[in-house]
Amino acid sequence: MVIGCCTTIDRYDTLQEMGYQAIALAGKDIAGMDDETFLRAAEKIKAGPLAMTSLNAFCPPALRLNGPDVDYGSVCAYAEKLCSRGQAMGVKYLGVGSPASRNTPKGYPRERALSEFGHSIMEICRVAEKYQMEVLLEALTRVECNCVNDTMEALDLLCGLNLPNLHLLYDIYHACLMKEPVKWIETAAREIRCVHIAGVHGEGHTYLNPRSMEKMLPYIKMLAQCGYHGELLLEAFCGDPDSGLAQSLELLRGVQQDQN
């Protein structure tokens, strides 16, 4: 697997110096950049050695993907801007997690929320297809949102929509917190295009340590057994980034060497 990190463009040089192989930027950051900042970021991505095939953090919380305030016109307009910029950076995959954008108020009908979210995904896929991009649906733990919380729910929605450019982003952090059976990976493997990982110790997405890697290893090994050889992207927001990035890379390299 290719070891990368979900981070900001200003950490590009740090990742490169440490020995990471790939980077993923946040869609909400890319869409929010002014033209000059975006062009500088695009040039760095195109000129540098790190692969960047995907974007995470699809949209800011203000853009609703379901719920009483959903506006499909706004969803399409945002997707158009992001896909245009993503294509210019060589991006192939748009990861759609964005828990705040799909978390509906208490008492909101679940089936309605799911239907509206599916409609938003359909509109995003329609725009992405024009730019030869694929949309990756991500299941998120119930701690973060109440819409599509495990891999089987994500796979059911994907199959129901039946769109040629809709696949899965598999997040080991979320799968671990939801106590998903490792064998579910066998069922979903044909649709997995990208994988995220973070530590489950402490609060939120933390950097990896040896104890958290023990929980992650069965998932990583199953992915490898099912033929996944794409990017394994660290998505950590909590802890010291310098020491965290270094230790996480060391642990992931150990896994990478075991595969070889």
Instruction: Determine Rg (CA atoms, Å).
Output: 17 Å
Largest sheet: 8 strands, parallel, barrel
* Major β-sheet strand ordering: 1-2-3-4-5-6-7-8
Report the order of strands and helices. EHEHHEHEHHEHEHHEHEH
Mean pLDDT: 96
Question: Which range does the strand content fall in?
Answer: 5-15%
The N- and C-terminal alpha carbons lie at a distance of 10 Å
Low-pLDDT stretches: none
Q: Give the overall shape.
A: globular
Number of helices: 11
DSSP strand count: 8
Multimeric state: single chain
> Could you estimate the helical fraction of the residues in percent?
40-55%
Query: Strand pairing plus helix content: what structural class?
Result: alpha/beta
Quick synopsis:
By secondary structure, the protein is α/β, with parallel strands linked by helices.
Structure write-up:
- With 260 residues, the protein is α/β, with parallel strands linked by helices.
- The protein has eleven helices and eight strands.
- It has helices spanning 12-18, 27-32, 35-47, 72-88, 99-102, 110-130, 151-161, 172-177, 184-188, 210-225, 241-259; strands spanning 2-6, 22-26, 54-56, 93-96, 134-138, 166-171, 192-197, 231-234.
- An eight-stranded parallel β-barrel has the order 1-2-3-4-5-6-7-8.
- Helix 1 links the parallel strand 1 and strand 2.
- Helix 4 (72-88) packs parallel to helix 6 (110-130).
- The longest helix is centred in the middle third of the chain and has 21 residues, at 110-130.
